[in-house]
Amino acid sequence: MSVQQLAFPITQQPAEARLASSYRERLRALLSGDLDFHGQDSGYASHNFHAFPAKFPPQLPRAFIEELTAPGDIVLDPMVGSGTTIVEAFLSGRRGIGFDIDPMALRLCRAKVTPLPPEQAAAAGHQVLLRAQESLQREKDGLHQQMDQRFGAPEHRFLDYWFLPDTQLELLALLQEIERLEGLRIREFLELAFSAIVITKSGGVTLARDLAHTRPHKVKDKIPRSPIDEFRKRLNKNLESLAVLGKEGKGAAEVHQGDAQSLPLEDQSVDLIVTSPPYAANAIDYMRAHKFSLVWFGHSLESLTMLRREYIGHDAALGVNPLELPVCASQVVASIALVDSQKASSLRRYYSEMTRCLAEMARVLKPGKVAIVVVGSSTMRGIDTRTDICLGEIGKGVGFELVGIASRKLDRNRRMLPVRHQSSGTRSQIEQRMHEEYVLGFLKPA
Ligand SMILES: C[S@@+](CC[C@H](N)C(=O)[O-])C[C@H]1O[C@@H](n2cnc3c(N)ncnc32)[C@H](O)[C@@H]1O
After folding, report:
1. What is the three-class DSSP state of 358?
2. If exposure means fewest CB atoms within 10 Å of the residue's CB, which of 55, 180, 244, 277 is most exposed?
């Protein structure tokens, strides 16, 4: 066949369409490659500054960033979480932009992309430790008074329930000394180390079991660790990571409070999106653990409860304007409605909100460029919410081409996911899907 006979001869295609076809091929190749990354180090640079449930391995955004963008390009994560995508954009010389509504995610992500002179951060951290120990020895009465002045009655009750009295005083002594420091960025770095000793897999200095993982349970006979000792250890670890971040961070990064359903970004301004939305069914309740630190930073419990209702996938479906959903999502919602109408409306809320998020992604992305959406599976009343298929369908409805859906096996020990019931005997299909997540590759047509 001669070139003239082709319906769309390659050489006569507009440059944008040629570019899109090359992105499509590269995306296909990435989706059919190994996306498990098991056994690889996921804690380099600042990735391990602080625990965060369901963060994806840094190799995942890295693979897409390296293959689909050039240095200086803009990489967006509209639901940034602990900032894995933004850190990787920063390390590979791109310009990362992140949004989230969770104050803890924002704190975390900002500190993870802010290189500081390690000697300065070390001097400030050791000064905090020294002065906190001095005030614990000399000013215990003053610390007691401060506890009373700082927190309202509900926050007091919360702290009394989860922290022993001595632990509270040690934490306050540390926090006061951090707040006395002058540089904002140093304060944010040290506040993150403070938070990291509260929100840990083991429950750290609290009376809770496993705060970074699941619903906190109070363990009455637990002997919590000393905040001063834990802060020292965490500070030293984070200082090592800070040195690496300073040497290897070549790009730029910004993180803002913002709702992924209405992004303050111009149309066609982004080169790549790599993101993972919350689970359907509200399977990971971020605020449940985050409030353990946020209360110390001055947030009231009431304000946090209000904010929690704003999270995509929250089960309070009231007041949310549901959208018309495509076939797969409507069918799943309908089958859940047969057994539980409340759960069905919260799933309808999730898919409606995700429709708005995907539409925003399609709006801000440059034509011919790629959006990667990583989703886990969820069940409601034993019914699979088919999040991968439904979001693929929704993406197509807002104008994306769905190039492919890859599945990756979860390294459950590493990723801190919601605990699942152990099934006996042969694993059901649903149970198997719970050990996988899905990488949806969308292309915005040129
Ligand atoms: C699965 S986590 C992202 C994890 C991230 N990929 C990482 O590696 O750390 C989902 C995030 O979506 C955020 N989120 C929930 N509702 C949001 C909204 N309306 N706008 C922006 N972010 C939202 C949550 O606060 C949470 O941090």
Report:
1. helix
2. 180
428 pLDDT above the threshold of 70: no
Q: Give the residue, by CA position, lying nearest to ligand 1 atom 12.
A: 79
The set of residues, in sequence order, having a beta carbon less than 8 Å from that of 371 and lying 6+ positions away, is: 272, 273, 274, 275, 358, 361, 362, 365, 395, 400, 442, 444
Q: What is the mean pLDDT of residues 155-161?
A: 96
Query: Up-side HSE of residue 158: CA atoms within 13 Å toward CB?
Result: 19
Q: How far is CA 410 from CA 37, 56, 80, 177, in A?
A: 9, 9, 20, 41
Mutate to test the pocket of ligand 1, among 56, 60, 62, 80 (most ligand atoms within 8 A of CB): 80
**Are the C-beta atoms of 368 and 73 separated by less than 8 Å?**
no
| Residues in the ligand 1 pocket, defined by CB under 6 Å | 52, 54-56, 78-79, 81-82, 84, 99-102, 105, 259-261, 276-278, 286, 311-312
For the ranges 14-18, 182-186, 241-245, 315-319, which has the lowest average pLDDT? 315-319
Half-sphere exposure of 445 (CA within 13 A, CB side): 8
Asked if residue 249 lies in contact with residue 90, where contact means CB atoms within 8 angstroms, the answer is: yes
**C-alpha of residue 56 to centroid of ligand 1, in Å:** 12
Cβ-proximal residues to 338 (8 Å cutoff; 6+ apart), any chain: none
pLDDT at residue 425 tops 60: no
Tell me how crowded residue 345 is: count the other CB atoms within 10 A of its CB: 19
Nearest CA to ligand 1 atom 25: 102
Can you give the pTM of this predicted structure?
Answer: 0.91
Sign for the pseudo-dihedral over CA of 167, 172, 175, 177: negative
CA–centroid distance, 184 to ligand 1, in Å, is 25
